[in-house]
Amino acid sequence: MIRAMVLLPPDEAMTRDLVGELSGFDGIELTTAHDAGAALRDIPDVEVLFAFFAERRLLEAARSLRWIQALISGTDRIELDEVAARRIVLTNARGFHGTPVSEAVIAMMLALGRDFARVLRNQAAREWRPWNVRLLAGSTVVIVGVGSIAEALGPKCKALGMRVEGISRTVRDVTGFDRVRRRENLRETVAEADFIVLLAPADDSTRGIIGREIIAAMKPTSFLINVARGSLVDDDALIDALCRGRIAGAALDAVTDEPLGPDHRYWHVPRLILTPHMAGRHEGSIRELFPLLRTNWCHYRAGELQQMANRVSR
User: Fold this and answer.
1) I want to staple 94 with a disulfide (CB 3.0 to 4.6 A). Which of 64, 73, 77, 227 is the partner?
2) What is the pLDDT of residues 152-170, one digit of tens each?
3) What is the mean pLDDT of the chain?
4) What is the DSSP letter of 13?
5) Which of 255, 204, 200, 217 shows the shortest CA–CA distance to 233?
6) How far apart are CA 81 and CA 74, in angstroms?
């Protein structure tokens, strides 16, 4: 038997679905935990970890760990240096978030352009006051980070009549994009944008990529949307810009300090939409991963490590 652990945030439905599926895998002995503290008790004997994160203290205690299956595409919440040093196999959920995240971005663009926050305020105040809204058609969206999610988002934006520009480490032709430029061209590219969407991975090269210089280059009528990681944005610079009306608004699904505490400044910032890092979640999100998990489990049991899907190299 292979001892495995499911490490998930408290979510009864997600835990039930995932544990129910994994329990049917041949040769598995399964345990569950909902935070690192609870996981530390059983992790020393665990060989396989299914998780959203794996912090250093957890990995240091996991003496028997041989494979981590990340349940999201990003691996910034996993200590990659430790994984590489111990030659732990790491696989992720790359390719499964294109549809939900791209739909979330479209919803945010509509909410910002039509000022849904104002709609709700007026409704609560029982005020009937129409105004002119911003259309997506004819607008320019700049997508920072052209991976699988951007490849799902670009064509949707084109179908709505938008011009689609991309910023990436590599310049290439991408379906649904009018142009893809290098990161070195970010400042001049955002100056043309009506919407800037952040989809880049979190690493040293993207930390604070949206800072004062880039925000200063944005049009006063433009909007910033972050569905990637909070570390991409300089919080102080964005808060200052929104409070001063330097840009038209922002929507953040990811912030630097998660979960966002009740006293955080973001709660009091005007022209800002906050969602609790849920752009990639939907009713069937965990079930979509089941074929990947089963395939990788079979390869792992057979010792076919090079055949495992979505391997992350370091």
Assistant:
1) 73
2) 999 999 999 999 999 999 9
3) 95
4) H
5) 255
6) 15
CATH superfamily of 98-274: NAD(P)-binding Rossmann-like Domain (3.40.50.720)
Residue-level pLDDT at 314:
64
Tokens linked to 28: 């598995």
Would you kindly state where each structural domain of the chain is located, as residue ranges? 2-96+285-307, 98-274
- Between CA 3 and CA 1 the distance in angstroms is 6
DSSP string, 51-93: ES-B-HHHHHH-TT--EEEESSS--TTB-HHHHHHTT-EEE--
Q: Which residues of the chain have pLDDT under 50?
A: none
What the block records as the tokens of 30 is 């399964």
- CA–centroid distance for 252 within its chain: 11
Q: Which tokens is 264 given?
A: 């955080």
Which CATH code for domain 2-96+285-307?
3.40.50.720
Q: Which amino acid is at 289?
A: L
